[in-house]
Amino acid sequence: MSVNQLTPKVFACSQSTELAQAIAKHYGTELGDLTVSRFSDGEFQPVINETVRGRRVFIIGSTFPNADNLMELLLILDACKRASAKHVTAVIPYFGYARQDRKDQPRVAIGAKMVANLLEASGATRVMTMDLHAGQIQGFFEKPVDHLYGSTIFLPYIESLKLENLTIASPDMGGSKRAYAYAKYLQSDVVICYKQRAKANQISHMELIGQVEGQHVILVDDMADTAGTLTKAADLMMERGALSVRAIVTHPILSGDAYEKIENSQLTELITSDTIPLKKQSSKIKVLSCAPLFAEVMDKVQNFKSITDKFII
């Protein structure tokens, strides 16, 4: 058997072990043997306990806070590079620091570009991720980027609800393109929320552009951090006569009092994926796994097949 025909090795970062196990199961393999040694001061060192020489390696790890999650991914990439892996793919279901994609005020870092540089310098020869906060981040890389879409797993669920009088909504102007894509596929109407922020994670004012009276509304966004935007938008739409409001977000960051906001809001449910593990369970949160999608795309990458059919919208 040639080296190219060898089964790829799949390794998990500590923060994404559960998701990585699910991806490996759908891929038809087991996670590689990797341990993390820790010093008493908190410094850690990932150690790969099996050969990866000449292999394709997939390293699965979302880079949500804290910064140790990103650092662990970088160290594992470096370890694989130094162990003579042939191809090293960083599978990053949630790409952290993506909100820092430009200079929106003087004297700020462009964090997404810096992370891209770090990933490549550490040995990533390919990056696989889903629903980047800004699609142009793909251009920050000199290596191939497989940018998957959460719509692949969310649209079948929306269709299963069989909602009449369906309207797709964007919680802000920046997400209007995503909302229009969903609406075009589902042949539904679109409304947009216009919001102003007093500062990061704090909304000072919100208005609704469009009519939702007598409609079942589904808000679509790439992430929910404090959940302030989603819950405020849901309450506003119910005030304007919506029959129900659901929200779809790919990445459930859900920091601070986000869970309490969701529970106390007029959202019927929040539909999300498992790119980030939930901190706690909620009766209003439904999780759809992205593991089958990543496993299938990893298999196509390994076998040099097109992934075009994975882009529903």
UniProtKB/TrEMBL annotation:
Metal-binding among keywords: yes
SMART domains the UniProt entry points to: Pribosyltran_N
GO cellular component terms, A-Z: cytoplasm; ribose phosphate diphosphokinase complex
One of the record's GO molecular function terms: kinase activity
Similarity remark: Belongs to the ribose-phosphate pyrophosphokinase family. Class I subfamily.
NCBIfam families for this protein: PRK01259.1, ribP_PPkin
Protein name, UniProt field: Ribose-phosphate pyrophosphokinase
